[in-house]
Write a structure and sequence with these properties.
The chain is mainly alpha-helical and 286 residues long. The chain contains eleven helices and no strands. The radius of gyration is 20 Å and the shape is globular. It holds the Pfam family EF-hand_5.
């Protein structure tokens, strides 16, 4: 039997999603193209942000192998921040970029073969997706952990309804982050970010990313050459794994209400709900 929350969510999505054609009836059917484009856009938007978009608490779902993979991904990707990093979140624009990357015939829609290519890339565990070229980084393994926060039935895959919830949450997050940039950088108060204001917002976000990278260099660049070499990344990975395990233990302790040292199904549900809420509200984990 479908959970009440899911039935209500399906009704809301049918009436409000602006991700493409969504059909509704007694059983909601979601447009495959819209969901695939939306999920790829969610992966990109979460990866490009200075923050973690819920990933910090998503370690509560992770096995040791998944923690290791995520830590290795982050360590390997740690490097100088590109000039274009820090762009203001714009879900619609990024979604259009993803569509264009797969729209081989240029007709503005994805046909069956084009959609199949995108859906294959959404596996994220075996391929380097084509849409990764549209962002300065892709934190694929971190996004996979976030994805499980939307797996309400616990079957380790996302149904169309669960995937639609993920897309809607990240679109809402992007809207809130855009509003935060507007509040901070709309100098003329016209309710829009012009080119100069958008660039100021981007430069401020990039400065935060650069500062974070400089902190890493200060700790791990032992020969002082301004970059991380292979031997230095070994220690970065080791420390990252230890910190990830500590975060996981802290998350489990926070949500382990019966004190048995593991998260029951109900406790995992509470953790997942908290992650989903933080994503939607544009907040980071405490």
């Amino acid at each position: 039997m479908m959970p009440v929350r899911s039935r209500m969510l399906g009704a809301v999505l049918c009436s409000s999603l602006v991700l493409g054609s969504v059909g509704c009836g007694d059983e909601a059917s979601f447009d495959e193209e819209s969901l695939a484009l939306g999920e790829a856009t969610a992966a990109l938007s979460s990866s490009e942000e200075p923050g973690e978009a819920g990933a910090e608490e998503s370690v509560g779902f992770a096995s040791d192998a998944e923690l290791m993979t995520t830590v290795e991904e982050d360590a390997d990707a740690t490097g100088p921040v590109p000039e274009g990093a820090g762009a203001v979140c714009d879900f619609g624009a990024k979604r259009s970029e993803v569509r264009d990357a797969y729209d081989a015939d240029g007709d503005g829609r994805l046909n069956r073969s084009e959609l199949a290519e995108l859906k294959k890339d959404l596996d994220l565990t075996r391929v380097r997706p084509r849409f990764a070229r549209l962002a300065w980084r892709l934190r694929a393994n971190a996004f996979l952990l976030i994805r499980w926060a939307f797996d309400e039935d616990g079957d380790r895959r996302l149904s169309d309804e669960e995937r639609a919830a993920l897309v809607a949450a990240f679109e809402q997050r992007c809207t809130r982050l855009h509003q935060q940039a507007l509040d901070a950088f709309d100098a003329d108060g016209n309710g829009l970010l012009d080119t100069a204001e958008r660039e100021a917002a981007r430069q401020a976000a990039r400065a935060r990313l650069v500062a974070k990278y400089q902190e890493v260099l200060a700790q791990y660049d032992r020969n002082g050459n301004g970059s991380l070499e292979a031997a230095e990344r070994v220690q970065l990975r080791a420390d990252g794994l230890a910190q990830a395990r500590e975060r996981r233990a802290a998350v489990i302790a926070r949500y382990d209400t019966d004190g048995d040292g593991v998260l029951s199904a109900g406790e995992k549900d509470a953790l997942a709900a908290a992650i989903r809420q933080r994503i939607e509200e544009g907040r980071q984990a405490p």
